[in-house]
Specification:
The protein is built from ten helices and eleven strands. By secondary structure, it is of the alpha/beta class. It folds into two domains: 82 residues, Winged helix-like DNA-binding domain superfamily/Winged helix DNA-binding domain (Arc Repressor Mutant, subunit A, Orthogonal Bundle), CATH 1.10.10.10; 194 residues, D-Maltodextrin-Binding Protein, domain 2. Helix 1 crosses helix 3.
């Protein structure tokens, strides 16, 4: 894709006028129109459509602008970074939504992430991504053994069952649990649920299965469900919501020892420990 045409598109999108865009770009209107048509041919979608006597972005045009804005910014910064000797390779981290959403704010306190790629994978798929070199470091508490990778325990985090106060006196068999829907690709190294619940020891009433953790949190906030969650997530959650939506820890038969969940960093076998690896481990240890 021609970067100049992408830039021309953004100038038009920001001004909303071919005339104004031509003035800024210092090119003729026919030249700009041709560049935009060629860009549409490259993309394969109509990005600009007629509106009365003028033009506007189509639905695909708005999507294209949003997707290419960070790329255009990064491209424009390359010469300056080269002059400063700071051209960087993005840090590539893979994990579950538990860590990609809630741990990120903590991680930024321990490392300077100038450029970051954050990937979400389910168990098994995460290990494969590390093995195939798609991510540099993985974070998991459901390790799936795979050739070519190593698991290093970074810390242990405390888990618990959480819900609204109305569930405080509800028996375990009656608690309506919400659990992750994504199945593991492979065989976990121990028999636990995807949320860390010891399935082999304690049965529970699973009422809801969801793909996204935030969907589970919403069910809990609205009083429809309870969830087995890391304590640090509930603490961060409760700091940001109104008192009536705060979650409280519930009584369950799982012992304190069993609630301690090991968190592992995943890297390629025999890979040299990187600064990123050490900083992630330090951030994870701050949770315990």
């Amino acid at each position: 894709m021609d970067i100049d045409r992408v830039y021309y598109f953004h100038v038009f999108a920001d001004t909303g006028s071919l005339v104004k865009a031509c003035e800024i770009l210092r090119i003729s209107q026919p030249a700009l129109s041709k560049a935009l048509r060629l860009l549409e041919q490259e993309v394969g979608f109509t990005l600009i459509e007629s509106e009365g006597r003028g033009l506007r972005l189509s639905e695909y045009g708005h999507m294209f602008k949003a997707e290419t804005a960070p790329l255009l910014t990064a491209w424009s910064q390359v010469p300056e970074k080269l002059r400063l000797g700071k051209a960087s390779v993005p840090s590539r981290i893979g994990s579950f939504e538990v860590f990609t959403t809630y741990f990120l704010s903590i991680l930024t306190k321990f490392t300077a992430l100038e450029s970051l790629e954050l990937h979400e994978f389910g168990p098994g798929h995460l290990e494969k991504a590390v093995s195939d070199g798609h991510v540099d470091v993985g974070i998991t508490y459901v390790p799936i053994p795979k050739a070519g990778i190593e698991f290093v325990e970074a810390t242990k985090i405390k888990m618990g069952a959480f819900g609204l106060k109305k569930f405080k006196t509800t028996a375990l068999k009656d608690l309506p649990f919400v659990v992750p829907l994504v199945p593991p690709d492979g065989t976990p190294s121990k028999v636990i649920g995807l949320d860390g619940w010891p399935e082999h020891k304690f049965n529970r009433n699973i009422r809801y299965r969801v793909t996204m953790m935030e969907s589970a949190m919403e069910l809990c906030r609205e009083g429809h469900a309870v969830a087995y969650l890391p304590e640090f997530i509930v603490k961060l959650h409760n700091e940001k919501v109104l008192p009536e939506y705060r979650l409280t820890e519930l009584t369950i038969p799982v012992s304190q020892k069993e609630r301690l969940q090991s968190v592992f960093l995943i890297t390629k076998s025999h890979a040299q420990e990187s600064t990123l690896h050490r900083e992630i481990a330090k951030g994870l240890r701050s949770l315990s």
